[in-house]
Write a structure and sequence with these properties.
The protein is an alpha+beta fold. It has 14 helices and 31 strands. The strands form eight sheets. Strands 3, 7, 8, 9, 10, 11, 12, 21 and 24 form a nine-stranded mixed β-sheet that branches. The protein has a five-stranded mixed β-sheet with strand order 16-14-15-17-20. The protein binds zinc ion (ZN). Zinc ion binds next to loops. The site of zinc ion has 8 residues, from loops.
Length: about 575
């Protein structure tokens, strides 16, 4: 490709609206262009990278036994009613009405369509397992598109669905997909951490995410430095140890006692006033879950994890109640108590059982209770884990210390089980002739997100550093002083030879200064730069500089294409 003909301009400055590094660099490099919030065009350079990522993914899916197909973007809304998931997807699901007044959905994912399809074609366990996938555009009405390609409303995704006769089959499919994903990230030069994840709106059981750990990530992971435990913060658990250090023989349940706590409203104020650690207090938090008022109680030193709470309540909309709403429910905000509360659903975090003789509100302005103990003094409707794990907490597996890190999710796998196949009557006859629902899994990678994550992970202050496996071009051919005779004809000859050798070359045929050309070469992140100048021409050579190296050793012009090919091959094999 000749640079002078390339569509898409490099920019000196990143546009003001670009927040993340990948957003800035991809815009500056002329690889993407924004059309609206969360909607982007890929320009030729960016599209080349995307196609290479797509090919790596396709190869690994095929190797794992996947069969590629193509499902429609336009989906009958009835399928979403049948699965019930139009509720959990809520406003993220784009819908439209056609000329015959039929409602259609624009696919944010394809479990419904593919399960319905498999239901029509598969009858026997002998036809399973099946791994079906596509690489296709998805649409989701994200509430807050941001970060360039990191969170968008229209994106290309590889989604694979596995269909097995039983749980053991699903385990195998799941394992082979996890391995395929690891292969993909390795080939893209992208180190990832596998973490336990919440299955969110998709529903299902086991779920893992593949995270690129980087400061700019918007997800948070909690991991143990002592064992292999790692989880998305939405899902992460921790050991809720009794932090009061009260010897067990002293843990007599003392009689409930009302104490005046004037002007002490926050947990810290109350704990300080009474003279106990916050871990010996109980905190009340109030929510509306699908319109129902909910009283949540948790140990005072912990925070509520709203994802866990939403899952526990099986609700789709969850929001904090206002102070007015709390008072309307007959509760005194700031002095709230589960003791004596009536007609309100109470959900407790199981931390309220690690510790004893807690301080809790008396539901009376200016008063708290001392020595509150569950279940002696109050009842709850639901007791479960709804606490947020934080850095410094204890590992649920080994009691080691948990740390936290920011990450970008670049892949997500779910064991759906039979949650969707049951709704579509997708079943098979097993070898005893009995009908059983098909056991499903689903596995997604957003290609644009992956591309952006590579840039977040691999760049310097001059620009992008593409791994060879996905670089838009392998070689940046950079002749200098085009006005000097013999430079341009020699560069043209090198350009032809390299292409003949099957090397992808971006030929900077512009009559610009060395500074402009070198800056663009660095910004675009092309792995190997070949510079031809009057000086190198004198010694019948070019400078060969890797994007990541400082030195630029000379390569003789004689047989240049073969030498370059060898360099590239060596670099690829050392990367793998
Ligand atoms: Zn651990």
């Amino acid at each position: 490709m000749r640079f002078s003909k390339l569509f898409g301009k490099t920019l000196r400055q990143a546009p003001a609206e670009a927040e993340s590094i990948s957003h800035q660099l991809l815009l500056r490099a002329g690889m993407i262009a924004q059309e609206a919030a969360g909607i982007y065009s890929y320009l030729p350079m960016g599209w080349r990278v995307l196609k290479k990522i797509e090919n790596v993914i396709r190869e690994e899916m095929d190797k794992a036994g996947g069969q590629e197909l193509m499902l429609p973007v336009l989906q009958p809304f009835e399928l979403w009613q049948q699965s019930g998931r139009y509720v959990s997807f809520g406003k993220s699901l784009f819908t439209l009405t056609d000329r015959k007044e039929h409602t259609l959905a624009l696919g944010p994912t394809h479990e419904e369509v593919i399960t319905d399809l498999v239901h029509r074609y598969v009858q026997s366990y002998r036809e399973l397992p099946l791994l079906l996938y596509q690489i296709q555009t998805k649409l989701r009405d994200e509430p807050r598109p941001r970060g360039g390609l990191l969170r968008v409303r229209e994106f290309i995704m590889k989604d694979l669905y596995s269909f097995d006769a039983d749980e053991a089959g699903l385990d195998e499919s799941y394992q082979s997909m996890c391995q395929a994903y690891s292969n993909i990230y390795a080939r893209l030069g992208l180190p990832t951490m596998t973490v336990e994840a919440d299955s969110g709106a998709i529903g299902g059981k086991d779920s893992h995410e593949f995270m690129v750990i980087t400061e700019t990530g918007e997800d948070e992971v909690i991991y143990c430095s002592n064992c292999d435990y790692a989880a998305n913060t939405e899902k992460a658990q921790f050991a809720k140890t009794d932090k009061t250090n009260i010897p067990s023989e002293a843990k007599n349940l003392l009689p409930l006692e009302e104490v005046a706590t004037p002007e002490a409203e926050t947990i810290e104020e109350v704990a300080g006033f009474v003279g106990v650690p916050t871990s010996q207090t109980l905190k009340a938090v109030f929510y509306f879950a699908d319109g129902e008022f909910v009283f949540v109680i948790i140990r005072g030193d912990l925070e509520v994890n709203e994802t866990k709470l939403r899952n526990a309540l099986k609700c789709s909309e969850l929001r904090l109640a206002t102070e007015g709403e709390v008072n309307e429910a007959g509760i005194v905000a700031g002095f709230a108590s589960p003791i004596g509360v009536e007609g309100v659903r109470v959900v407790a975090d199981d931390s309220i059982t690690s510790g004893s003789n807690f301080v809790v509100g008396a539901n009376k302005s200016g008063y708290h209770f001392k020595n509150a103990n569950y279940p002696r003094d109050f009842q709850v409707n639901l007791m479960t884990d709804i606490a947020l794990a934080q850095s410094g907490d204890s590992c649920p597996k080994c009691q080691g210390k948990l740390s936290s890190a920011k990450g970008i999710e670049v892949g997500h796998v779910f064991k759906l089980g039979i949650s969707i196949s049951e709704k579509f009557g997708a079943s098979i006859l097993d070898n005893d002739g009995k009908s059983r629902p098909i056991v499903m899994g689903c596995y997604g990678i957003g290609l644009g997100r992956l591309l952006a994550a590579i840039v977040e992970q691999s760049h310097d202050d001059k620009g992008i550093i593409w791994p060879l496996s996905v670089a838009p071009y392998q070689v940046y051919l950079c002749p200098l002083s085009l006005d000097k005779s013999a430079i341009l004809p020699t560069a043209e000859k090198i350009y032809q030879e390299l292409q003949k050798e099957g090397i992808e070359v971006l030929f900077d045929d512009r009559d610009d200064s060395p500074g402009v050309k070198f800056n663009d070469a660095d910004l675009l992140g092309i792995p190997l730069r070949l510079t031809l100048s009057p000086r190198t021409l004198q010694s019948q050579s070019v400078e060969a500089k890797w994007r990541t190296e400082k030195e630029a050793p000379l390569l003789p012009l004689d047989n240049l294409a073969v030498q370059v090919k060898k360099l590239l091959d060596e670099a690829v094999s050392s990367q793998l």
